[in-house]
Amino acid sequence: MGYLRALAGPYPMVRYVPTGGITAADAAAYLAVPAVVAVGGTWLTRPDVVAAGAWETIRGLAAEAAAIVHDAAMGAR
User: Fold this and answer.
1) Residues in Cβ contact with 68 at an 8 Å cutoff, skipping those fewer than 6 apart
2) Is the per-residue pLDDT at 11 higher than 90?
3) pTM for this one?
4) Is a pLDDT exceeding 70 seen at residue 77?
5) Are 43 and 61 a contacting pair, CB within 8 Å?
6) Which residue has the higher pLDDT, 69 or 43?
7) Closest to 64 measured CA to CA, from 17, 25, 29, 34
8) Which residues pair with 16 in a beta bridge?
9) How many angstroms separate the Cα of 36 from the Cα of each of 7, 32, 45, 70, 76?
10) Distance CA 19, CA 41 (A)
11) What residues have CB less than 8 Å from 74, skipping those under 6 apart?
12) What does the DSSP 8-state code read for residue 40?
């Protein structure tokens, strides 16, 4: 996150969507960086869960991700 904040200084017009290594535990911290507009991560659709067809688990992970985004957006106000 420090790297993204550092880039935002000289490049204030650039927006970022970090994806590598993002987890549900740190997604909100990335979303708190003003230059970050979205995050992605494999926690949402882990290959083993998809391969198993565990759609309820995926729905739950999607709901968790939506809650993280919602809470981050409310915190930014």
Assistant:
1) 24, 27, 28, 31
2) yes
3) 0.81
4) no
5) yes
6) 69
7) 25
8) 36
9) 11, 7, 21, 15, 12
10) 5
11) none
12) -
How far apart CA 63 and CA 60 sit, in angstroms, is 5
Q: What is the mean pLDDT of residues 27-46?
A: 90
Neighbours of 77 (CB within 10 A): 4
- Per the structure block, which two tokens stand in for 25? 């535990």
In angstroms, the CA 12 to CA 4 distance is: 11
Q: Does residue 29 have a pLDDT over 80?
A: yes
Q: Other C-beta atoms within 10 Å of 22: how many? A: 19
pLDDT of amino acid 45 = 85
d(CA 47, CA 53): 10
Q: Which amino acid does the sequence have at 20?
A: G
Record the tokens describing residue 66, joined without a space: 């939506």
Token pair listed for 69:
């985004």
Question: What amino acid occupies position 49?
Answer: V
Instruction: Read off the tokens for 62.
Output: 């999607």
